[in-house]
């Protein structure tokens, strides 16, 4: 089961302050805009939208996404766009298409725990790749590629979950070139890219892909709505057809209505102004949380330029998994960092904090509570 899903159960408690999930702020969800678009697309193309659709997608959505990803430096056709029910399904479909029991998958250390779970379901052998402030360490990646001959590399290049770090610009092209040289697939999971509060946007790994070894996963969950459950895999043959076969047996096709809504949202030029507005708010929330972390004793933490998460390393000897019930009893939830490593039970002094789903006032209150819990743990050592 998912550690995050277990922690989200505490959200139902009155007055619980959750730094544990990755939800967009309620203010970022444009229910009136989406309602108007839904009505418009149904009146314009309702018979097709309400009928069964093609597994490989609703044509206007595929065309709109192909245009949108050009801003990432990805030059693809609508044919290369495979709608998926959130990028989570895209990850599952790619794993289903490629992984046999015992196949090696290289993953950042740490990385998103939901993807670790997906790979374990297909009985992959997970091998961690060293990371630093610039993301994946290329020398370690090439060493492991030569040693293990992996089927796949999984990477979150921008504002990584859980650390918030970004893969350095000069490491992106070499990863694409290494994939082609050694013959492994790169799964580039990039749902946070547009949530940038400082610095310059970087080209995607996929933009350097010349032979179809990189599969780019895009999602609208963090930008428009997680409830719409729609994303896209940018993928070429023969992998694309394998993913389509898997999707046919999975859900037949992603919702035509949500594809149509997002297509219209993009075509109307709503994405840019919306992202600009939410980024202003998220930047304030992130910086407020960083201000509080500066007062935590002997604590190291990341300072992201965007995204939804901050990663913290508390003093050695503190066990954030054992500490969590104490924090929850005082009304604060977080995710212990050990869950993000494929080596179970390691790095127990780490934790992931989310700021996007809390007001500034709740961040102030919750971080003060969390700091007091940490200080008490230090006194008991």
Q: Uncertain runs with pLDDT below 50, 5 residues or more?
A: none
Radius of gyration: 21 Å
The first-to-last residue Cα distance is 31 Å
Q: Quick one: overall form? A: globular
What share of residues is helical? Answer: 40-55%
Summed over residues and divided by their number, the pLDDT gives a mean of 95
Order of helices and strands: HEHHEHEHEEEHEHEEEHHHEEHEEEH
Class per helix and strand makeup: alpha/beta
- Outline the biggest β-sheet: 7 strands, mixed
Task: Give the count of helical stretches.
Answer: 12
- Percent of residues in beta strands: 5-15%
Quantity of strands, as a count? 15
How are the strands of the largest sheet arranged?
2-10-9-8-7-3-4
What does the secondary structure layout of this molecule look like, with pairings?
Layout: H1 3-8, E1 17-18, H2 31-49, H3 59-68, E2 81-84, H4 87-98, E3 104-108, H5 113-121, E4 125-129, E5 131-132, E6 135-136, H6 138-148, E7 152-155, H7 169-182, E8 185-189, E9 214-219, E10 231-234, H8 239-250, H9 256-267, H10 271-293, E11 300-301, E12 309-313, H11 320-329, E13 332-333, E14 335-336, E15 350-354, H12 360-380
Parallel strand pairs: 1-13, 3-4, 3-7, 7-8, 8-9
Antiparallel strand pairs: 2-10, 5-6, 9-10, 11-12, 12-15, 14-15
Helix pairs in contact: 2-9, 3-9, 4-5, 4-8, 6-7, 10-12
């Amino acid at each position: 089961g998912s550690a995050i899903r277990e922690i989200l159960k505490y959200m139902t408690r009155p007055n619980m302050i959750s730094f544990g999930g990755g939800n967009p702020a309620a203010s970022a969800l444009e229910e009136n805009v989406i309602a108007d678009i839904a009505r418009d697309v149904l009146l314009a193309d309702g018979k097709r939208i309400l009928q069964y659709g093609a597994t490989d997608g609703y044509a206007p959505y595929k065309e709109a996404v192909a245009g949108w990803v050009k801003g990432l430096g990805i030059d693809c056709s609508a044919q290369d766009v495979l709608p998926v029910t959130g990028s989570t399904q895209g990850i599952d479909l790619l794993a289903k298409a490629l992984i046999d029991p015992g196949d090696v998958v290289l993953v950042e250390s740490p990385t998103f725990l939901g993807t670790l779970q997906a790979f374990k379901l297909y009985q992959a052998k997970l091998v961690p790749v060293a990371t630093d402030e610039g993301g994946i360490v290329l020398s370690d990646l090439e060493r492991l590629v030569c040693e293990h001959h992996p089927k796949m590399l999984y990477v979150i290049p921008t504002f990584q979950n859980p650390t918030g770090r970004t893969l350095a610009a000069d490491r992106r092209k070499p990863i694409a070139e290494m994939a082609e040289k050694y013959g492994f697939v790169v799964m580039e999971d990039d749902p946070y890219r547009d949530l940038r509060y400082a610095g310059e946007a970087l080209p995607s790994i996929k933009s350097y892909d010349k032979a179809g070894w990189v599969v780019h996963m895009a999602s609208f969950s963090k930008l428009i709505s997680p409830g719409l459950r729609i994303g896209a895999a940018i993928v070429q043959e023969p992998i694309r057809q394998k993913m389509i076969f898997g999707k046919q047996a999975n859900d037949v096709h992603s919702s035509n209505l949500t594809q149509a809504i997002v297509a219209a949202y993009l075509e109307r030029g709503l994405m840019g102004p919306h992202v600009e507005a939410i980024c202003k708010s998220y930047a304030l929330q992130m910086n407020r949380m960083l201000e509080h972390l500066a007062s935590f004793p002997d604590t190291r933490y990341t300072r992201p330029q965007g995204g939804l998460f901050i990663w913290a390393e508390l003093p050695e000897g503190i066990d954030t998994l054992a500490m969590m019930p104490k924090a929850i009893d005082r009304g604060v939830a977080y995710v212990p960092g050990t869950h993000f490593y494929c080596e179970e039970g390691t790095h127990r002094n780490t934790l992931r904090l989310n700021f996007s789903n809390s007001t500034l006032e709740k961040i102030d209150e919750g971080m003060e509570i969390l700091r007091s819990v940490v200080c008490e743990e230090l006194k008991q050592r």
